[in-house]
Amino acid sequence: MMKLFLFLILFSVTLFAYVDGDMDGVEDKNDLCLSTPFTDLVGLDGCSIESLVSPHHFSVVAGISLSDSNYNELSKIETLTTSLQLDYYYKNFSLSLVTSHYKNMSKEYSASGMNDTYLGAAYQWAYKDLYMSFGVGVLLPTYDIGFNNNNTDYTGNINLSYTLKNINIFAVYGHTIINDEDIEDVALYQDSTKYSTLGLGYFFGKDLYVSAYYNESDSVYEDIEKLKTLSLYSYYSLDENYFITANYAYGISDSASDNYITLKVGYYY
Hints:
Elements: H1 2-17, E1 40-42, E2 48-51, E3 56-67, E4 78-90, E5 93-105, E6 112-114, E7 117-127, E8 130-140, E9 153-164, E10 167-177, E11 192-204, E12 208-217, E13 227-237, E14 242-251, E15 259-268
Antiparallel strand pairs: 1-2, 3-4, 3-15, 4-5, 5-6, 5-7, 7-8, 8-9, 9-10, 10-11, 11-12, 12-13, 13-14, 14-15
């Protein structure tokens, strides 16, 4: 009985003397990297040699939107748009494909079809709380209304974002090269257009983000005033994979939709 009692005491001392704070299988006194992620494989020194988390990620986003004017015809008609977005992420690099279908709902004018399809790439750079991304893309001419607008356009943008505690300030500037051909007395296209966004956001914890922003963009047509909108945007994370976004835009120029609302559901993995 005394031998069993001494064995239990010795075993308890040995057990509590072994400390492995990051649970990587290497005792802390021999661990040169004391806070390796639980998903990393480590060497005999306790430092990471391989991550079990894949650097490749994907997202699928489906959306529906409703506006009370058509940007291309500049007529006050309701337009229902459904969209699908596919994204691929690798470290700081991403690829995106966005395609959408529109349907005009008006007694005077009814039409439906594909909008232009966007294919783009972006690279993000970060320094502390400052984020900057550069993007380039092509607008494939899947939207065609018979006005020589079936040429490929090219676009590029730069995004800046700075976060201070829960407050986020962001700005976007973009430029698009228009290759559509003019039709005399019918449609005169600009050679290029510019757009810019300035906004302020707030993080309500890790799951909810809300922002307000001002957007200004050129019309693809000549002699049309800039499209100007004020918008509210929200992002809510349902869990580690599913999320939803909502956006409302109010047109403050005659060339923009008076009201534009979008709801999207996404899955990230």
